[in-house]
Amino acid sequence: MNDARRSPVAPSVPSSSGASAGTSAASDAGTFEQQGLEPASVAESAELAVVTRAGVVESRHIGSAVLVGPDGSVLESIGAPERLMFPRSTLKPFQAIASLRSGALISPEAVALACGSHVGSRKHQELAASVLAAEGLDASALKCPAAWPARHQDLRVHLEAGKTETPLAFNCSGKHAAFLAATRTNGWRLNTYLERSHPLQRVIMDVITEYCGETPTVVGVDGCGAPAPAFSLTGLARGFSKLAAATSRRDAEVHAFTVNQAMLDYPWAVHGRGEANTLVLEELGLTAKLGAEGVLVVGAPDGTAVAVKVLDGSSRATNLVALSMLAARGGIELDALGPVLRKIVKPITGGLGAEQVGSIRLAPALLERL
C-alpha cells in the first residue's frame, strides 16, 4: 500500500468562484441542459426489473446499469451509464478518504460510520458523538439537518430517553463528524466546512476525480447540505472498483485500504443491523453503498464493480439488479446469493397473513445480457 498521503495535504484544485454548497448548480456551474450535459432520458434508458402481481406486470423499473472489471473496462452495460447523474451518498467512501488524507484522526469504526447512510440508532448516534467529543465539539457543530431515528424500535428507545430530533440521528452524521475532525486537525474554519471553497471540500473533489476518472462539471447540494457532484455511472463504478480492491492491492492508497476494510469490519455502522448494505457487506464480503434517488454501487474484492441508477429514484430493485449482474460474472457464489436476496428484496404480499402474491424480477432486456 502507498502510505505517501498519511499527513494532511493542501488541495490542488481551486473551487470555482468560491461558492458555498448552498449556491444552486444553475448559478455556479450551469444546469445539465445549459452545458449540453443532459442526464439519461427515458428513451435511452432500459427496463431493469419488473414487479408482477398475479402473473401480470404491475410496475417497471427503468434506468441504467454498468459492470466494470478490475482494470476499469466495461464488461456489461445497459441503458445510458455514460450520462451524468448524481451519485449522492455512494460518494461517502471517497469523502471519507479525503477526510483521512486531510488528517482526521478517527477510529476504524468511525471511518465506517463516515461511509454510511445509517439508520440513526443509539449506537450510531453515540459513535458520531464520540468523534465530535474527541475534537472538543458536540452535535451543535454539525451542519446536517436534525432527524429522528429511521426505524420504529430505535425511535421508541430515542423517545423513551426523552430525546428530540437531533443531527446525530441524521444518516450522514458520521460523514459530517469526520469532516469536522479533519477540519479541526488543520485549523480550518469550522462553520464553513460545507462550502465548496473550503479546503476540505476541495480535497474531496480531488479524490473523486482521482478515483472515478472524471472531473465533476455540475455540483449541486446534497440532502445533508454537502456539495453533490454529478458525473457518470461508469465513473462511479470505476471508483468503487479501485476502492473494493484496495485491501488486496499493494499499490493501493493506505486511506482507501482503511476505508474499505472499515466498511467490511464494521458493516453495522454503514447502514444498520438487518439493512441491505450491512447484509451485503457481512454475508457476501462485498463493498456496497446506496445513494438516494435509486443509486447503488457494489464492488468485489478483485475490483469487479457494478453501479445502478433507477430513473424515477426507486431503490426497490437496485440490489436485485446489481447483485445479479455481479453473480453473472462470477463475482458472487450463487449458493450465497440466494439467501441474501431473500432478506433484502422485499416480496410482494397481500392479506392479513402477508401471503406472497407477486414478485420482483429482472427484466428480459437485462436477462438477455447476463
What does this structure look like?
With 370 residues, the chain is an alpha+beta fold. Helices cover 36% and strands 18% of the residues. It has helices spanning 25-28, 92-101, 108-114, 122-134, 152-160, 173-186, 199-212, 233-244, 254-265, 267-270, 276-284, 318-328, 334-344, 364-367; strands spanning 46-53, 56-68, 74-78, 84-85, 218-221, 227-232, 287-291, 295-299, 305-310, 348-350, 355-362. Strands 1, 2, 3, 7, 8, 9, 10 and 11 form an eight-stranded antiparallel β-sheet that branches. Strands 4-6-5 form a three-stranded antiparallel β-sheet. A hairpin with a 4-residue loop joins strand 10 (348-350) and strand 11. Helix 11 (276-284) packs antiparallel against helix 13 (334-344). The longest helix is centred in the middle third of the chain and has 14 residues, at 173-186. It is globular, with a radius of gyration of 20 Å.
Question: Which properties best describe this structure?
Answer:
370 residues, alpha+beta, eight-stranded antiparallel sheet, 11 strands, 36% helix, globular
Distance between the termini: 34 Å
Question: Low-confidence parts lasting 5 or more residues at pLDDT below 50?
Answer: 2-30
Number of beta strands:
11
Helical stretch count? Answer: 14
* Helix fraction bin: 25-40%
The helix/strand order is HEEEEHHHHHHEEHHHHEEEHHEEH
The largest sheet is: 8 strands, antiparallel
Label the structural class.
alpha+beta
Q: pLDDT average, as an integer?
A: 91
What is the overall silhouette?
globular
Strand content: 15-25%
Oligomer: single chain
**Rg calc:** 20 Å
